[in-house]
Predict the structure.
Amino acid sequence: MTHPRTDWTRAEIADLFNLPLTELLYRAATVHRENHPPAEVQLCTLLSIKTGGCPEDCGYCSQSVKADSGVEATKLMDVQAVLQRAAQAKDAGSQRFCMGAAWRNPKDRDMPAIVEIVKGVSAMGLETCMTLGMLTPQQAEMLAEAGLDYYNHNIDSSPEYYERVISTRTMADRLDTLSHVRAAGINVCSGGIVGMGETREDRVGFIHTLATLPQHPESVPVNALVPIKGTVLGDMLADTPLAKIDDIEFVRTVAVARITMPLSMVRLSAGRESMSEATQALCFMAGANSIFTGDKLLTAVNAGDDKDAALFAKLGLTALKGEEPMRACKALEAVG
Ligand code: SAM
Ligand code: DTB
Ligand code: SF4
């Protein structure tokens, strides 16, 4: 197996975005089936283990103290309560349990409970993913030792547009955390949000940043902005309805992520709830092979298991079998 390219130029990525849709989808679907079972989709479940009261000012987020979204701040959930929710997710057929905390970064005093949660969820046979904000190299090591499979930390947008959305931490801070995660041997999950009012050029810069990391993230979540009332971006979009991302442009972004990062799991993440079945089907054609299941994301509503079961039946898709993401990571390690 050859190592996937990490030397993409912005011009090459822009050219992919500009392809006729039929050609772009054909190429993305070809890369998809060369590297993944094309009719299998990974099922992940999200749980907010510490909600709200976050000191960061991410303009899309209901959990920032700067947002007037009505989300109540909570303390870190009890370990047993988290394990109970993980067991429910497993019973519902989920393969990965992703836990999010609305922190700028975990405090050292939080780490023992976090470690216990990772160990408990792993012991159930679920893949574990955490998103806790910025990490020090030592915290990344602790999570690795606990057996954490994935760490999610999104770059969110292009380096240029990022600064218009978040002021309290920089893209460079985020890339530092990703490198600590990578150095600790934890698989990287990193993606971002489309539909925040960014331009096509920003979407090119967003994919370019991910596809030129020294090693591609094993998981790439592509979120469509969920406009939440009381957040800067949610309110901005409410006033300018035409700013909502065009469905075909969203599909193009998924396809370009698939082509440039062939081994990665590309996750059709937030925003699915308001997407038509046809748009979701196009995303799967374009190489998306992972979703969040269940009724809730972190604070926003999700499509829900019944709707998803009906969609999968209609499209002939099934839950991913086996250790696909791990296989991809092992393949990457093997080729150095
Ligand atoms: N506090 C942690 C952090 O930011 O690193 C973890 C939680 S945060 C909610 C995880 C990611 O969810 C964000 O980076 C963003 O990409 C995505 N996200 C948050 N709010 C969203 C929204 N309203 N619509 C779409 N995606 C969103
Ligand atoms: C990611 O990229 N999307 C997920 C997960 N990683 C943590 C979060 C989506 C959050 C959507 C808005 C909400 O539920 O508040
Ligand atoms: Fe805090 Fe994460 Fe929300 Fe940003 S995205 S405000 S860091 S919870």
Notes: The pocket of S-adenosylmethionine (ligand 1) is lined by residues 60-61, 100, 102-103, 131, 133, 153-154, 156, 192-193, 223, 225-226, 228, 270, 298 (CB under 6 Å). The radius of gyration is 18 Å. The chain is about 45% helix and 15% strand.
